[in-house]
């Protein structure tokens, strides 16, 4: 039965021109063609996403409670990569602005973001955090951030002397774990935060790329 139908279709096409054959094929099989093309696109996107996710970042910066709504709103990471001649195809400079939290953690977004933040801190994929002061206080008690006096070169630490933010820790006493970054030229120019927000910058204690974190701080200070 199927064989007879195939013969009938072949007979219909026998004396038709190439254009007519193409039009006939498209009329009867366009749904199948479109489905196949979409399937290829989906598979390609999946493979591309998998490859990208497997690439080691050059630096990973998380902006918590940022005013950004799109990656296209800022050139911060592309500027950093270009200034350091980083091949972003091999080692992307990642900017994460997805986390939103309030001090009470009372809404679903805050709870989800706090869980996301704890995962980041546990696996150590984020190098630099920029966030509100209350978040620094909240997580500094968990020793989540580096002591900047120990981490930064003396010259860089001296540049930040007036902007340092100290916390009292149980074992190390009073140490600088962050600095006020809102007045830095690059941060202001990129409008990373609303005008009434005073963001601080800290380096994750679990970061696997502390040298990159230090270099990112140096980059922020270059035009300030």
Describe the structure.
This protein has 224 residues and is α/β, with parallel strands linked by helices. It has two domains: 2-52, no CATH class; 56-221, 3-Layer(aba) Sandwich (D-Maltodextrin-Binding Protein, domain 2). It is 48% helix and 14% strand. It contains nine helices and six strands; from the N terminus they run ααβαβαβαααββαβα. Strands 2-1-3-6-5-4 form a six-stranded mixed sheet, sandwiched between helices. β4 (164-169) and β5 (173-180) form a beta hairpin. The longest helix has 36 residues, at 18-53. The termini are far apart.
Strand order of the largest sheet: 2-1-3-6-5-4
Distance between the termini: 79 Å
Shape verdict: elongated
CATH first level of the largest domain: which class?
A: Alpha Beta
Order of helices and strands: HHEHEHEHHHEEHEH
Backbone CA Rg: 27 Å
Query: Which CATH-level-2 architecture of the largest domain?
Result: 3-Layer(aba) Sandwich
SSE layout and pairing:
Elements: H1 2-13, H2 18-53, E1 59-63, H3 76-83, E2 93-96, H4 108-123, E3 128-131, H5 133-140, H6 148-151, H7 154-159, E4 164-169, E5 173-180, H8 185-190, E6 200-203, H9 210-221
Parallel strand pairs: 1-2, 1-3
Antiparallel strand pairs: 3-6, 4-5, 5-6
Main features:
224 residues, alpha/beta, D-Maltodextrin-Binding Protein, domain 2
Condensed summary:
The chain has 224 residues and is an alpha/beta fold. It has nine helices and six strands; from the N terminus they run H-H-E-H-E-H-E-H-H-H-E-E-H-E-H.
């Amino acid at each position: 039965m199927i064989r007879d139908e195939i013969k009938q279709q072949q007979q219909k096409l026998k004396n038709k021109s190439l254009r007519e054959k193409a039009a006939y094929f498209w009329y009867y099989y366009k749904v199948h063609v479109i489905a196949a093309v979409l399937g290829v696109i989906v598979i390609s996107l999946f493979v591309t996403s998998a490859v990208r996710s497997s690439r080691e970042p050059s630096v990973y910066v998380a902006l918590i409670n940022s005013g950004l709504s799109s990656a296209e709103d800022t050139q911060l990471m592309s500027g950093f990569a270009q200034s350091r001649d980083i091949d972003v195809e091999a080692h992307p400079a990642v900017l994460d602005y997805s986390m939103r939290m309030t001090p009470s953690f009372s809404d679903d977004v805050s709870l989800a973001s706090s869980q996301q933040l704890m995962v980041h801190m546990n696996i150590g994929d984020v190098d630099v955090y920029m966030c509100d002061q209350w978040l620094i206080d909240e997580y500094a008690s968990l020793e989540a951030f580096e002591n900047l006096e120990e981490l930064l070169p003396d010259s860089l630490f001296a540049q930040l002397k007036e902007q340092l933010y100290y916390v009292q820790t149980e074992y190390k006493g009073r140490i600088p774990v962050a600095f006020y970054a809102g007045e830095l030229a690059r941060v202001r120019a990129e409008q990373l935060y609303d005008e009434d927000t005073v963001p601080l910058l800290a380096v994750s204690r679990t970061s696997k790329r502390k040298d990159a974190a230090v270099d990112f701080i140096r980059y922020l200070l270059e035009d300030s």
